[in-house]
Amino acid sequence: MSLILVIEDDPRIQRALRRQFTAEGYEVHIEGEGPAGLAACKAMRPATVVLDLMLPGLSGRSVCKEIKAWSIDTPVIVLSAVTDVADKVLLLETGADDYMTKPFSPRELLARVQAAIRRNRKKAEGLPLGFGDVSVDFVKMEIYKSGTLVPLTAHEFKLLRFFLDNPGRAVAREELLNDVWGLSFHLTTRTVDNQILKLRQKLEADPANPVHFRTIHGVGYKFVPQA
Which stretches within 2-105 are classed as H helix? Predict the structure, then answer.
C-alpha cells in the first residue's frame, strides 16, 4: 500500500483528501505544519507528498526545497491559492513536480498523484550511474566530474535523471516539459534550453561543443552516454 503524505493546515481539505485517497486504497498521513510535515516525510518516505504553500512554522516552498535536497525522487505536488505565474515558476527551482491552484478537484489531484507515482517507479528501474568522467549517486544526491563534486539544483537533478533513463533517444522539448517539469501551467521551450545549457556548463568537458547533451535540430535533444 502506497503512503501519501498530505501537508495542509485546512481541516476541510485534510478531510476531503483523506476520503479521496483512502477510497482508492492509499494509506494517508496528514500534518498541518511545515516542520512536522518535513519530519514526517523523512521518517515515513511517502510515495508522494501533497504540499500546501501557505503553512505555519515553515513555508511550503521551504519544505519542498528541503524534501528535494534530501530525496530528489520523492514527488511533490503543490497546492496553493496563489495564481501568480512568477510564483509558480519559482517552484521549479525547488523541484516541485506538479502544481494545482485552489479550489481544485480532488479527482484531478488523485490522477496527478497516481501519474507522479508511475513516473517515479519507471525512473527507478535500471538507471545508469554515470557517463564519461561523470559519476552519479542519486541516493546521496551527489554528482562528481573527474572526481570533483559538482553542485546541481533539484531541477537539474531531475533533468539529468530523465536523460539517464532515456539514453540515445531524440527527445522533443515538449516531452521534456511534460515529463520533467510536469507542471500544470504554461512554460515555453526556452525553459528547457536554459536548463540544458546549465547541465552542459557543469558536466560537459567543452560546453560549446557538447558530446553528451546534444541538440537534435528540429526536434530537441539527445543524451549520449558514451561519446
Answer: 11-23, 34-44, 60-70, 85-94
Are the C-beta atoms of residues 79 and 102 closer than 8 Å to each other?
Answer: yes
Peptide bond into 103 cis (omega under 30): yes
pLDDT score recorded for residue 85:
57
Spell out the residues 6+ positions from residue 148 whose beta carbon is closer than 8 angstroms to its own: none
Instruction: State which residues of the chain have pLDDT below 70.
Output: 1, 82-93, 122-128, 182-187, 227
Question: CA 99, CA 220: separation in Å to the nearest integer?
Answer: 25
Residue type, 201: Q
Comparing CA positions, the residue from 18, 50, 34, 70 lying closest to residue 117 is: 50
CA-to-CA separations, 169 to 27, 198, 214, 225, in angstroms, rounded: 37, 20, 11, 11
The model's pLDDT over 70-110, given as tens digits with 9 standing for 90+, comes to 888 889 999 987 666 556 666 666 788 888 888 889 899 99
Q: Say which residues have a Cβ less than 8 Å from residue 23's Cβ, sequence separation at least 6.
A: none
Rounded Cα gap, residues 150 and 142, in angstroms: 7
Distances (CA, A) of 55 to 38, 63, 92, 197: 12, 9, 19, 34
- What values do phi and psi take at 199, rounded to 5? -65, -40
